[in-house]
Amino acid sequence: MSLSGDPAQLAAAVLAHPAVESLDGGPFGTVASYLAGGRVLGVRIGVDGEPVALAVVARYGTPLPQLAAELGAVVRGLLGPVAVDVTFSDVVAGPATSL
């Protein structure tokens, strides 16, 4: 059973966070959701109890544990009570403010 959710909508919500620079496909592009028109890198909606996986490039300024918690809240706001794994692929310079 897969979670119902639009990976593109989830990606847009994650990218809207001011401390997120971009999404990343992770090693070999493994963090991705596949759709009829292509794929959404950086977001994988789990199946059969797997967590939602995010791979992000963060902007310097927000502590990573805090950012992971905030992104988890974004995901749960769209998908309900799910586990979320956040991988930080990189941190880049640039101001960030928390929500």
Give the secondary structure arrangement, pairings included.
Blueprint: H1 7-15, E1 20-23, E2 32-35, E3 38-41, E4 43-44, E5 52-59, H2 64-79, E6 84-92
Parallel strand pairs: 5-6
Antiparallel strand pairs: 1-5, 2-3, 4-5
Task: Give short descriptive properties of this protein.
single chain; 99 residues; alpha+beta; two-stranded antiparallel ribbon; 25% helix; globular
Structural features, described:
This protein has 99 residues and is an alpha+beta fold. It is 25% helix and 31% strand. It contains 2 helices and 6 strands. The strands form 2 sheets. Strands 1, 4, 5 and 6 form a 4-stranded mixed β-sheet that branches. A hairpin with a 2-residue loop joins β2 and β3 (38-41). The model has no long low-confidence stretch (mean pLDDT 89).
